[in-house]
Design goal:
The structure holds two protein chains of two kinds. Chain A is of the alpha+beta class. Chain A has four helices and three strands. Helix content of chain A is 53%, strand content 14%. The N terminus of chain A is likely disordered. The chains are: A alpha+beta, B alpha+beta.
Chain lengths: 114, 896
């Protein structure tokens, strides 16, 4: 099923990834799975776009990477959120929550949508 | 699970140890994702192919994303690596700086040694660049060519033309865009200010055809050059002046154009000012006037007085020009019998300005400083080796702690470069000071020496030389570190240091090479000193001490009648002779002769000239009665001139000994008669009244010519060089002599006042300069080299203190120990001397043209050099060895 919200904004994807990494170092596939699970597939992302996004986060210093072993002993690249990444996520999350609350209020205000 | 690298070449697996394999990493990361997804889908019941397809679909465009990631990662890797390197470099530099500061003595010695080497190299290179490498300040200067008359009769390749011949070459050749004719002369300049107020001054003048400016392709800075129309006598009252004269005389004012000056009494209008770097035909030329010849002179094929310079047409090679000009010359030889054996000889102007001898000597100098630099490098390399040995434990620890070898080598090279940079910076200072001294001490006739400066090219070369030295002396310690064996280092624990067997060979080779270079330099300098000595001891044929000379040129307009000239000379001689302190005064037209003096053929009375005789030309000269006595030239037979040898008396002549011996061997020359020119020529027969001793008039190292002298009262000259013999310091009588001239004619200028010592020393100035330079480089090399040998021996000996202690404790006599150690050092020195002598043999042969009276393989010079080097190295080996043998065996054994 296609997402009703259409394509994700780039900033949104960064937030999703950073949030995913709060749970500890993960490889790209685990990040994809986490987003899938949490959003219950509502926010369907093109999985491949995760990786360029991860590189951008790395360039910004919000994420670091190193090679390690996956649960099934495969060599995989793990990403870890940095202290700067956490701060950034917090700030972005505030903006989002206020923004979405405001939009929700607008939508709830009279007259009703009908 | 599949090995991610399966299928890749086996070396790819190891590539990561050298540098990250970015492409493989990206592939692996994406493959991991796709496989995990496919596996999950399979677990939910999809067939493997379906699962793969679905995984790919969810992923998106694998190729595009992979490409993006690869290029991103590569860029990131590059940036990362660069910053890592910069960081390492900064660390190395900081570390090096600290370690230099901990050893200020070492650093000072090493930096100064390098500064001397780099500075000397820079200074000499700037001279080579200014004098040889930089083109002359004329557009396409290499196309400008001197056109000489090849005088095969006299064996003079660079002789000057008669006008008629030159005119034929100018008109008939098709290889030059133009050939300008010119001659150089001195003129008395008055004017530019009120006639009576101006001190007349002597200026160098170029009398040239108008196309000189086209040939040189230089236009006046302001005003115009002269024209062909102004080459006509009567229309030639114009003058182009030099930038220097313009500044001195007219304050650089534009209004100088159109003003008049008097040159040798003749009024001329200033029409142009040349740019400052226009120095043709001579460096000091101040005025250029049109070469305006009378019709008679234009026809003359046997009066030789004209230089010629041309510009090759585009596309014409020098060889083609030579061929065509030779053809023209042959045609003239056939057409005019008087032209027999006259050819044409072309020399490119740059070669003419800086002759082969000067070129050779400058290249020799550059080679010499290069050798000094190498010796300096070897010294610093040795110092660095010793220092590295002292740091062996530190290096060992760093290796043990996992410092990579390449990192270690980089660290050592960084230190070397840092030291080289300090040396280079100090070297620039040395070069700057050295150049100032060099330019001050350089002989005046060294062409283009005024153009020497530390310009951008020189700075770039200095930078390259600095880099080279950094690598040259940094290489030995770096290689040493590369080879260093951790186990050995830690076991020896710095006790005997890394010096041991590992460094000894390198050090010995460096010391031997230094000795070899010093031998070569000393031999070269020795040969120049011997040449100079030989030149100084040449018997000049006169007594040069206590002589004062000055030149006087009577303006031809004012002194047109010979009687007036004679009157002037006689009055002047009488006054000058009366000056207290003056023992005698004489005069001659030219004390010294140029290689191409004014000269003539001659005929001996009653004798048909043999073909060889017909080729001999006699320089023309006139002297005052007292000249030979004043100069101290001995009279061999007959008499000197007297006042009675005047226009009304019999025509008389004096000759030199060489001429008497050649033409009247075994008989008395006095009383014989000959005349200038052919037997049927218009000149009078002249009776030989006296024979004087030979004098070296063409130069110390040139053969004596056959010479004739006429009395000034019969051949009435307008130019004379006055020579006064004085009791005390000749220079102190200058003003009295000037006053005597003023008393006879207040307007008459005097120029080129000099003592004979000054004249003589300026004639050997270039040789003296080369000798002094090479001598100082050789001395510097000797000091540096011996210090180097001493340093190596001291170090090697100090490394063996323990061994010496054991030997002494076992009862070896101290003398034997010293002999053993000195013997080892001397074997190296002997090898160095052998190589050096062989090298000197090759190198000094290139110096052939710089030598005089001594062969390139000169046994006394080589013997002295070998002896000097032998003694010096013996001392350098013996001192440290003796010190080592003097130790107390017990202390030596405990020492470490």
């Amino acid at each position: 099923m296609r997402s009703e919200t259409g394509d994700l904004l780039q900033g949104t994807l960064s937030i999703l990834i950073l949030k995913a990494l709060l749970g500890g170092p993960s490889h790209g596939y685990a990040v994809a799975r986490w987003i899938e699970h949490v959003t219950q597939d509502v926010l369907r992302i093109e999985e491949g776009s995760l990786y360029p996004a991860l590189r951008r986060l790395e360039d910004s210093g919000w994420v670091t990477s190193q090679w390690g072993l996956s649960d099934n002993n495969r060599r995989a690249k793990f990403y870890t959120i940095t202290r700067d990444g956490r701060a950034h996520l917090r700030a972005e999350a505030d903006v989002w929550i206020r923004y979405s609350a405001a939009v929700a209020r607008v939508l709830r205000a009279a007259p009703a949508l009908g | 699970m599949a090995d991610p690298d399966a299928g890749a070449p086996i070396w790819r697996r190891y590539q990561r140890f050298i540098r990250p394999d970015i492409d493989a990493d990206v592939d692996e990361e994406l493959r991991f994702h796709l496989e995990m997804r496919a596996r999950e889908l399979e677990a939910r019941g999809a067939s493997p192919p379906e699962a793969r397809r679905a995984a790919l679909e969810r992923f998106g465009n694998v190729e595009r994303i992979g490409g993006t990631l690869r290029s991103h990662d590569r860029r990131r890797h590059r940036v990362h690596r660069r910053s890592e390197l910069m960081h390492a470099l900064a660390q190395d530099l900081r570390y090096g700086w600290r370690s230099f500061r901990r050893t200020p003595g070492f650093t000072l010695v090493a930096a100064l040694t390098l500064a001397l080497g780099i500075g000397a190299t820079t200074a000499i290179f700037s001279v080579v660049r200014a004098v040889i490498l930089r083109p002359l300040p004329y557009p396409d200067a290499e196309r400008i060519t001197m056109v000489w008359m090849d005088n095969r009769r006299m064996g003079l390749r660079e002789d000057i033309h008669s006008w008629a011949n030159l005119e034929d070459y100018r008109n008939q050749n098709r290889v030059f865009t133009a050939i300008a004719g010119y001659y150089s002369t001195g003129l008395n300049l008055t004017g530019g200010c009120a006639e009576t107020e101006c001190e007349p001054q002597r200026v160098r003048a170029g009398a040239a055809t108008a196309d000189l400016f086209t040939v040189m392709r230089v236009r006046p800075l302001t005003g115009r050059p002269f024209t062909v129309a102004e080459e006509q006598p009567g229309s030639d009252a114009v003058v182009v002046i030099s930038h220097g004269l313009w500044q001195r005389q007219f304050g650089g004012s534009e209004s100088a154009i159109g003003r008049t000056v008097r040159l040798n009494g003749r009024q001329r209008t200033v029409i142009g000012v040349m740019p400052p770097d226009f120095t043709f035909p001579e460096a000091r030329t101040d005025v250029w006037i049109p070469l305006a010849l009378d019709p008679d002179d234009r026809q003359n094929r046997q009066a030789f007085g004209f230089y010629a310079v041309g510009r090759l047409r585009d596309g014409v090679s020098l060889d083609r020009a030579r061929a065509e000009m030779s053809t023209l010359a042959s045609a003239l030889e056939t057409q005019y019998p008087s032209n027999r054996d006259y050819g044409v000889y072309l020399v490119p102007l740059p070669e003419q300005v800086v002759g082969p001898t000067l070129r050779t000597s400058l290249w020799v100098m550059l080679g010499a400083v290069g050798a000094v630099l190498l010796i300096a490098c070897a010294n610093v390399a040795n110092l660095m080796l010793s220092r590295a040995a002292a740091r062996d434990r530190e290096i060992g620890v760093r290796i043990a702690l996992g410092s990579g070898r390449s990192r270690l080598v980089r660290q050592l090279l960084t230190e070397s470069m840092l030291l080289a940079l300090v040396g280079g910076a100090l070297g620039l200072l040395v070069a700057w000071l050295g150049l100032r001294a060099l330019v001050t001490l350089a002989p005046e006739d060294l062409p283009r020496i005024g153009e020497v400066r530390l310009d951008a090219v020189v700075l770039v070369v200095t930078a390259l030389v600095t880099l080279f030295t950094g690598i040259a002396f940094g290489l030995a310690p770096a290689l040493d570190a590369w080879r260093s064996n951790l186990a050995v280092v830690l076991r020896e624990g710095g006790r005997s240091g890394a010096g041991g067997a590992r460094g000894e060979r390198t050090r010995r080779i460096l010391a031997g090479a230094q000795v070899a270079l010093v031998v070569i330099l000393l031999t070269g300098a020795g040969l120049l000193i011997r040449s100079f000595g030989a030149l100084q001891s040449v018997d000049l044929g006169f007594r040069p001490e206590g002589l004062l000379t000055m030149r006087i040129a009577l303006p031809s307009a004012k002194y047109e009648q010979p009687a007036k000239r004679v009157e002037f000379w006689e009055a002047l001689l009488a006054r000058a002779a009366a000056i207290p302190g003056v023992q005698g005064v004489g005069g001659i037209q030219d004390i010294f002769l140029s290689p191409t003096p004014n000269s003539t053929s001659f005929t001996i009375e009653g004798r048909a000239p043999t073909p060889e005789d017909a080729n001999i030309e006699l320089p023309l000269d006139a002297v005052t009665p007292d000249y030979f006595r004043v100069m101290g030239i001995p009279l061999r037979s007959g008499r000197t001139f007297t006042a009675r040898d005047n226009q009304d008396a019999e025509e008389v002549v004096m000759i030199n000994e060489s001429m008497a011996r050649r033409f009247w061997p075994g008989e008395e020359a006095v009383g014989k008669r000959f005349k200038y020119g052919p037997a049927d020529g218009g000149g009078p027969w002249m009776t030989v009244v006296g024979v004087v001793g030979d004098m070296r008039r063409t130069g110390f190292d040139a053969p004596v010519r056959f010479e004739t002298f006429r009395p000034i009262t019969q051949r009435v000259a307008g130019n004379l060089t006055l020579v006064a013999r004085t009791a005390g310091d000749p220079a102190s009588l200058t003003s009295a002599m000037r006053a005597a001239v003023k008393a006879v004619d207040p307007e008459q200028p005097v120029h080129e006042v000099a003592t004979m010592d000054q004249l003589l020393s300026s004639r050997v100035a270039q040789r003296r300069f080369s000798m002094a330079l090479l001598g100082s480089f050789a001395a510097l090399a000797l000091i540096l080299g011996i210090v180097g040998v001493y340093g190596v021996t001291s170090y090697l000996v100090s490394q063996r203190t323990r061994e010496v202690g054991v030997r002494l404790a076992l009862g070896a006599p101290p003398g034997g120990v010293v002999r053993m150690m000195v013997g080892q050092g001397m074997r190296v020195a002997a090898a160095g001397v052998a190589v050096g002598v062989a090298g000197a043999f090759v190198v000094t042969r290139a110096m052939g043209s710089l030598l005089y009276g001594v062969g390139a393989f000169d046994v006394p010079t080589l013997g002295a050099v070998v002896l000097l080097i032998g003694l010096a190295t013996l001392m350098a080996n013996w001192l440290p060895a003796r010190r080592a043998a003097g130790v107390d065996p017990v202390a030596a054994l405990r020492a470490e």
